[in-house]
Write a structure and sequence with these properties.
With 368 residues, the chain is an alpha/beta fold. It has 15 helices and 6 strands.
Length: 368
């Protein structure tokens, strides 16, 4: 087992611990855990073999350093550096449209939306290009990937703003954090702000007291305001619970697009991306694998591929647990049995009833 894998496993446990302290309001303890996580990411960076992996780990370490400073300021009663918080949400992305299997209609819509938004008309017409898109559907269907590819396609600054994390980490300061986020996005335009788990902020009116009207109003104001700006800022939001959004929020989105589970060709393409394009040889047939995974999400199929790869590595390297730096990892063909077992052990998480609910909501409220 690799050293960086062990470090990342430690980080995962510490992140759970930090969230626990944040929810309890024990900021001083959260600060201590953030310090440990930042140090571990720096250690993982020093052990990483690929430059891109090193950069990713160092970026994550910097993100946690920013949280440390924010937590210190809160403990000392100082005003947090909201711009720094917003900067910590910036992510580098190299994802392209070709890295996403299927979803051709949605990819075309997004390409058109960003293309129109950054273009200059040859005549002095007043265009009102789409600036806000809501992606809804089951978990793991590629909503984050679509936003990331859209951003990379125009070299935009990509802000990955997880609403649930903003609420838990910066509760009370959430409106100011959002204010800084849009301010920075305008300064660093072209920008795409991706709001994940958007339903966490846009609950039905009866539930809003759990969040506070200030944050919702700030989001609505900013989404109205950036249309008047010459700086290109687009909001792409995702939700697995579109029915939790009220009309005041829904009406702010130019498009409300259903991102479904992958069809046969898309499932086949995901297996090819996760295995064939990564130079793994398999004994199974891609068509057969696609047939066996009907009803699975893209994320679940990716998980199946990783499980099958790990099974092959364990088979080819029985002494892997005693590996030392410089160990030569043997790679063989991934067998049918390894792939079939991974499929059998990974159950689809989305029921037919839930799919029907998404489709019905889309027919009533969707807009493409």
């Amino acid at each position: 087992m690799s050293i960086d894998f062990l470090i990342l496993n430690q980080i995962k446990k510490l992140e759970t611990e930090a969230e626990y302290y944040e929810k309890k309001g024990e900021k001083d303890k959260a600060y201590e855990v953030y310090e440990k996580i930042a140090n571990l990411y720096e250690k993982a960076a020093s052990k990483a073999l690929l430059q891109s992996t090193r950069e990713l780990y160092l970026m994550k370490a910097e993100e946690y350093r920013s949280r440390i400073n924010t937590t210190k300021e809160k403990i000392n009663g100082d005003e947090p550096d909201y711009i720094q918080i917003a900067k910590s949400m910036i992510e580098k992305t190299n994802l392209t449209w070709d890295d996403i299997s299927g979803l051709e209609k949605i990819k075309s819509l997004l390409r058109q939306a960003v293309g129109i938004a950054i273009s200059k008309p040859e005549k002095p017409v007043k265009l009102d290009p789409p600036r806000s898109i809501l992606l809804f559907g089951p978990p793991g269907t590629g909503k984050t990937l679509l936003a990331s590819a859209a951003s990379n396609s125009i070299n935009a600054t990509f802000f990955n703003a997880d609403i649930s994390k903003i609420l838990s980490r910066y509760v009370g300061d959430s409106p100011k954090t959002i204010d800084a986020l849009f301010l920075l996005a305008r300064k660093m335009s072209p920008s795409i702000i991706f709001f994940d788990e958007f339903d966490a902020i846009s609950l039905n009116r009866e539930e809003k007291e759990n969040i506070g009207t200030g944050l919702i109003q700030k989001i609505l104001t900013e989404m109205d305001g950036f249309r008047k700006s010459r700086d290109f800022v687009m909001v792409i939001a995702s939700t697995n619970r579109p029915w939790a959004l009220d009309e005041a929020i829904l009406n702010r989105f130019d498009y409300r697009v259903y991102v479904p589970l992958p069809d046969f060709e898309a499932r086949k393409g995901i297996f090819e991306i996760e295995l064939g394009k990564k130079n793994f040889e398999i004994e199974a047939d891609y068509d057969d694998l696609a047939k066996r995974t009907e009803g699975y999400s893209g994320r679940e199929i990716s998980h199946i591929c990783r499980k099958a790869i790990m099974s092959m590595i364990k088979r080819m390297n029985p002494d892997i647990e005693n590996a030392r730096p410089g160990y030569k990892l043997r790679i063989g063909k991934i067998t049918k049995e390894e792939l079939y077992k991974a499929i059998e052990e990974t159950k689809p998480s989305v029921s037919k009833e839930m799919i029907k609910k998404y489709e019905e909501w889309g027919r009533e409220y969707g807009s493409e």
